[in-house]
């Protein structure tokens, strides 16, 4: 019974961390990024690029991007991780929708975009880091960053920065340079905050050993 109670408490704590991080992300994306016209990196940025170049709806392109990553995560991270990710993604949709419909709070920083970028980076990094610490991810791009991080032994925040910078560079096809550069600033800050949040109190990440194919293994001399 005591072991069962501990399991329930741990589950509630993990869900609390995931939902708190997701709420922070929704707040940041709506009140900082959206209200001050900062663009997006990751899969959201790629979906917007797909709409601009190919005319594909973001709702469809994000699904196309997310599904393969979720299947890979199910294989390497397990069903609990994927379920936690679904909780975060579903909660984000609800939180963002409620803020979009009912929040009258406007954080106007268009005349001070460096502050907007700094706030976006810190809050996004903290929110995404909390979701990762809770055992999930806030989206397919975060899952991909985590998998690459564990595979190559690179800090997850560094992978996050590299992926988003590439997407932002491509976003220059349809986004103004000024907003894209400040979004890049936010991405770099977020990457460092994610690294700090996910690595705090944990041992240094080790690179996974490469598996040598059996067919390519040298035969022993008899």
Automatic annotation (TrEMBL):
Q: Where would you find this protein in the cell?
A: Cell membrane
TM segment ranges: 12-32, 52-74, 81-99, 111-132, 153-175, 181-201
Keyword annotations of the record: Cell membrane, Membrane, Transmembrane, Transmembrane helix
The annotated topology with respect to the bilayer is: Multi-pass membrane protein
Q: Which Pfam families match?
A: YitT_membrane (PF02588)
Query: Could you give one GO CC term from the UniProt record?
Result: plasma membrane
| Primary localization | membrane
The record's section on PANTHER family has:
UPF0750 MEMBRANE PROTEIN YITT-RELATED, UPF0750 MEMBRANE PROTEIN YPJC
What is the recorded name of this protein? Membrane protein
Q: Which organism is it from?
A: Paenibacillus wynnii
């Amino acid at each position: 019974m005591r072991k069962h109670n501990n399991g329930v408490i741990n589950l509630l704590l993990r869900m609390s961390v995931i939902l708190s991080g997701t709420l922070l992300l929704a707040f940041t994306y709506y009140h900082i990024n959206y209200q001050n016209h900062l663009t997006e990196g990751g899969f959201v940025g790629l979906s917007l690029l797909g709409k601009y170049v190919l005319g594909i709806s973001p709702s469809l392109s994000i699904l196309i991007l997310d599904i393969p990553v979720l299947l890979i995560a199910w294989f390497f991270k397990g069903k609990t991780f994927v379920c936690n990710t679904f909780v975060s993604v579903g909660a984000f949709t609800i939180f963002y929708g409620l803020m979009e419909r009912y929040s009258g709070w406007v954080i106007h920083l268009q005349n001070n975009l460096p502050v907007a970028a700094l706030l976006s980076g810190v809050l996004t990094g903290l929110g995404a880091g909390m979701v990762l610490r809770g055992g999930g991810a806030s989206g397919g791009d975060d899952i991909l960053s985590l998998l690459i991080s564990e595979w190559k032994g690179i800090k997850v925040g560094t992978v996050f920065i590299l992926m988003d910078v590439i997407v932002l560079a491509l976003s220059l096809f349809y986004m103004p340079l000024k907003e894209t550069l400040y979004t890049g600033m936010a991405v770099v800050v977020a990457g460092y905050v994610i690294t700090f949040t996910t690595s705090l109190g944990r041992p240094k990440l080790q690179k996974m050993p490469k598996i040598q194919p059996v067919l390519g293994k040298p035969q022993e001399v008899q």
